[in-house]
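May I ask for a protein sequence together with how it folds?
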Amino acid sequence: MKKFILLIILPFLFIGCLSATKKLNERYYQINLCNKFDGKTEYVLKDRTRVDCLTDEYAIEVDFAKKWAESIGQSLYYAHMTNKKPAVGIIIDTQKDKRYFDRLNVMAKKYNITIFIIDKEEQ
């Protein structure tokens, strides 16, 4: 009987754990960063692409560190389409993510992309 009850309860505990960490997806960080700049989240462009955060000054693409390369292209495109400055909000999750930040930083300097570091630990 104890095994039967455990089998019924265990999946619900697992689902509860997933929902507790669900807020820590990309959207969670996007909203937090955008609120700090009083920007608009998910700003829709004419071609139906979406800027993660559009402020008076920046078109910001928010991504986890491992997607650093994608964030460059998106931020440049969104900046072009909105006449704003390109920016990337990079979510740093682990110490290993520093290598991705370093790569992003090289290209950000070359193409004048502003980087906003989002430390996952501080959220």
